Amino acid sequence: MSAGPPLAATAGTARWIAAARARETSRPDRLFDDPWAAELAGAEGFAMLTAREPSGTPNVYLPIRTRFFDDLVVGHRDWAGQVVLLGAGHDTRALRLPLPPATSVFAVDQPGVLDRTTQVVDRAGTDRPGGATWIPVAADLRAPWHDHLLGAGFDPESPCLWIAEGLFYYLTGDQVDDVLTTAARLSRARAIFAADTFGTGLLDLPAMRDWVESRRRAGVQPPFCTDDPVGLLHRAGWALDRIVEPGQDAANFGRLPALPDPWDGGPNPTLRTYLVIGQVN
Predict the structure, then answer these.
(1) What CA–CA distance (Å, rounded) separates 100 from 91?
(2) What angle do CA 90, 154, 233 make, to 5 degrees?
(3) pTM for this model (two decimals)
(4) Residue 10 pLDDT class (50, 70, 90 cuts)
(5) Cα dist from 225 to 7, 12, 85, 128, 197, whole Å
(6) CA–CA separation, 167 vs 230, rounded Å?
(7) C-alpha closest to that of 91 among 40, 156, 149
(8) How far apart (Å, rounded) are the C-alpha atoms in residues 261 and 240?
(9) What is the pLDDT of residue 177?
């Protein structure tokens, strides 16, 4: 069975997520401002956005997730001189977030995805709110990738914030463990790792059946999900800092019904979404 989706599929996903950011940017009550997102999405990205919302109801989770990680990056800017975006897609945080000029933002993804982002970054030049340095790192996270990051100038002895936004879903369990373990091994100073992941109940939803079955026919493993996000961190060498679920105060922004903290998952505890933050153990 194949280790993951075809490279072209994940490149398309980057455009889809950029389209979601562009749509959010167009709202008067936007949660963030990404003026480069529409160009990065292109027609293909907006077509994917429409196709993935057949009911016409926007996916409210995507902008909440982006804003949550935005707040995390800005909230740690005083000490995290390195930010590593794993599976960066067409991320523009180095351009749009108010980060210190000394901050290095390493964007790790496939060459084709990064080439498109590089064109936009180069055109933006210094005419942008963010002052960080954007450093592309061409690597496939399903294979050994640490040498690529080190070769791009990453310093394991310096503090770091690791962000895996929308990544784990596209990996196998072994690959997720490898990403977390590799990041922990490269974190010899203060470090935070933040990611999102879903409970296993997601795979049983009627809306997921065709997608899961199509992956099975293509020889691709089901999307990664877990009902033990704490164990996921611990076995890779990370100590739990906190877990936030969309709807709780830190990940709501007035877009979702309020969830209590802590939250027990309700009648289906496997149908959950986790925003997981770990620190060096």
Answers:
(1) 18
(2) 75
(3) 0.94
(4) low
(5) 20, 21, 20, 37, 6
(6) 17
(7) 40
(8) 16
(9) 97
